[in-house]
Amino acid sequence: MRLRVVTMLCVLVCAGTLRAQTPDALRAMYDSNQAFALRDAVEHGHAPLFYRGAVEESLNETGPARKHLHEVIHADPHSKDAKDAHEMLGNLFFRQGRYREAYAQIVSAHAERPDSADINNMLPLFRALSESPDMQVVRLKSTRLMRVGDDQRSLPVMINGKEVMYGFDTGAALSVMGESDAKLLGLTVVKVDMKLSEASGSDIAGIRLAFAKDLEIGGLHLRNVAFFVLQDTGVPFAEVPVGSRGLIGLPVLLAMRAVRWAPAGLFEFGKVAELKRPVTQNLLFHGSTMVVQTGVQDKLLTFSLDTGAVDTDLNEGFAKKFPELVATGEKESRAITGMGGSNKYDSVLLGPVVFQVGGYDVTLKAPHVFPSHSLGSFDGNLGNDILNQTRAVTLDFKAMGLRLE
Q1: CATH number of the domain residue 202 falls in
Q2: pTM of the prediction?
Q3: Within a domain: residue 10?
Q4: What are the φ and ψ backbone dihedral angles of 328, each rounded to 5 degrees?
């Protein structure tokens, strides 16, 4: 499941060029969603507050982002920059489970852009979230545990004193459960009048919301954790028993500060999982999406990072960057299946492609490219067929680094 507010791409630029960026060049990077290029340009130059705040928000630097984006808003409250600043702050607070602050920012953005389809779609969700107390971290202790289940992908999770077995999904903007699990746990469910789409291109029907008053995973104890509640008559929930129909999403993972897992089953989080410095800063957030900088041949690419995806998919952005490679592939039609259903798209089957991800070279023997399907407008969506080829994967949300071993 994916909830995408805005999207980003990446380009390769050199430090000499970065120091010479003008406000017009920064605006072009921002408008064309060149996330990592904008980050590097701001780091190496004297950028206006708006772009500094935009980069700080993408790095999840709450204090600086809040300070600089508020200054942008106060300087010209009715400008496009102010509207975008409100939306970025809303996304920042949303990721952190600060529901009421997120709603206040989206309301302000809506006031400046009442005709925005994205904001109008998000407003009911943020309103419903704001009616609950914010998510609260009661306790965080370093934890090592083993994942369970036939595929060793599930974590033991205590929700309101009852144990369930849920996987984890960096592509999920909120945690998710099926309606049968919500009933099992005795949660109150409320309807949310919004559209939620995912990679198959279908809308997910029957969006509802519930709050777990208490959630514990090892040494992590949270209160007021929001869950999307979805119909569980289709994939993937219909294929697993009640009590396992759920996924832990991005806000809970962020509360862990750093996570490390091995395909063999080990899962650890907290200080024990933090990367040793120095760290290659190859992660960013934009909206509710985590993106990672990857490499293919001599080009840098931006992929959404999705531990809920079995396969890595390559999209239109990849096809445009590698037209000669795509021309050598075999044309086909391939289905993309998600919680909203399954749809077929024209695709191209490639030969082996080597990806540089998190300091590691990983080869996909037969990746698929969807030249006319955006998959969220990134160059691709990085899934478990890459991650599971390594000995271990670390995500450090404070250092904003992904490392493969």
Answers
A1: 2.40.70.10
A2: 0.91
A3: no
A4: -85, -5
Condensed to tens digits (0 to 9), the pLDDT of residues 167-226 reads 999 999 999 999 999 999 999 999 998 877 666 666 676 789 999 999 999 999 999 999
Owning domain of residue 343: 300-404
Considering the domain architecture, whether residues 228 and 149 belong to the same structural domain is answered as yes
Q: How far, CA to CA in Å, does 80 sit from each of 27, 50, 73, 83?
A: 12, 11, 10, 5
Among 258, 273, 288, the domain-final residue is 273
Looking at the fold, whether 249 and 362 belong to one and the same domain comes out as: no
- Are residues 149 and 238 located together in one domain of the fold? yes
Number of Cβ atoms within 10 Å of the Cβ of 151:
12
Q: What is the pLDDT of residue 7?
A: 29
Least Cα distance to 405 among 249, 252, 266, 288 occurs for: 266
For residues 198 and 341, what is the distance between their CA atoms, to the nearest angstrom?
9
Helix (H, G, I), strand (E, B) or coil at 49: helix
Looking at per-residue pLDDT, the higher value among 201 and 300 belongs to: 300
207 strand-pairing partners? none
Q: How far apart are CA 34 and CA 12, in angstroms?
A: 10
Within a domain: residue 56? yes
Q: State whether 63 and 165 are in the same domain.
A: no
Phi-psi group of 257: left, alpha or beta (phi > 0 → left; psi -120 to 50 → alpha; rest → beta): left
| Rounded Cα distance, 260 and 131, in Å | 33
First vs last C-alpha separation in the chain: 27
As given in the structure block, the two tokens for residue 368 are 């698929």
Spatial distance between the Cα atoms of 66 and 57, rounded to a whole number of angstroms: 8
Domain count, the chain: 3
Is 2 within the bounds of a domain? Answer: no
Average pLDDT over residues 241-267: 95
Query: Is 178 found in the same domain as 164?
Result: yes
Domain co-membership, 119 together with 140 = no
- Asked if residues 198 and 340 have their Cβ atoms less than 8 Å apart, the reply is yes
> Burial letters for 245-261: b for 16+ Cβ neighbours within 10 Å, e otherwise?
bbbbbbbbbbbbbbbbb
> CB-based burial of residue 139 (10 Å sphere; 0-12 exposed, 13-18 middle, 19+ buried)?
exposed
Q: Determine the Cα–Cα distance for residues 386 and 390; give it in Å rounded to an integer.
A: 8
Do 158 and 114 belong to one domain?
A: no
Q: Is 19 found in the same domain as 90?
A: yes
What's the pLDDT tens digit per position in 18-36?
444 788 899 998 888 788 9
